[in-house]
Design goal:
single chain; Arc Repressor Mutant, subunit A; Tetracycline Repressor, domain 2; 2 domains; 9 helices; elongated
Length: 191
């Protein structure tokens, strides 16, 4: 029952943080959402900060797994970057709670709470670095323009894909624009 209860608390916290953000949620509200007493939350998580840290780590890990597992299944860079972007569209559309947690708190974690959230910032920066490495791979294979700033491109991809309304057509159009701007060759649609 211990792991099941902890999981129930984490899922309730994800819902609450995705709706209201870190600052807009109390432990009491999370307890109510989870159907447990507040004291039980403190048994598993000594503070709201620790609970949020676990929620954030899970959200970023799931995002990374969702994007990179599919992309790494192929050797063709063109197929890899397309799968990566399609997976991002899928994540935004189908993993809305996790995406909203990331989008609501990423600015705060990256820039405002440096001491408090340094381990979370590092986790997010590692995710950005993996996207940057994917772009560098394209440069090495001569698919991506050599003079393209890989860090700026990684930031653009992450910020343009994650922080838009959940509109499939809009996300697909953003995906297409990223491909056109990133790659030296025409996309499959021939544009």
């Amino acid at each position: 029952m211990g792991n099941e209860t902890k999981r129930k608390i984490l899922e309730a916290a994800k819902k609450a943080f995705s709706k209201y953000g870190y600052d807009g949620v109390s432990m009491e509200e999370i307890a109510h959402e989870a159907g447990v007493k507040k004291a039980l939350i403190y048994y598993y998580f000594p503070s709201k900060d620790k609970l949020f840290e676990e929620v954030w780590r899970e959200a970023i890990e799931e995002l990374e797994n969702h994007l990179f597992a599919v992309a790494e299944e192929t050797n063709s860079y063109f197929a890899k970057i397309k799968k990566f972007l399609r997976s991002y569209v899928d994540f935004v559309l189908n993993k809305t709670v996790l995406n909203e947690i990331i989008e609501k708190e990423k600015v705060t974690i990256r820039f405002e709470r440096e001491g408090k959230w340094s381990s979370l910032r590092e986790k997010y920066e590692n995710f950005i670095k993996r996207v940057e490495e994917l772009i560098e791979e394209g440069k090495k294979q001569n698919y991506v323009y050599k003079d393209l700033d890989s860090r700026a491109a990684a930031e653009l991809i992450v910020n343009s894909m994650g922080d838009v309304p959940r509109d499939k057509k809009l996300l697909q159009n953003i995906q297409e624009m990223i491909l056109r701007g990133l790659l030296k060759m025409k996309t499959e649609e021939g544009r």
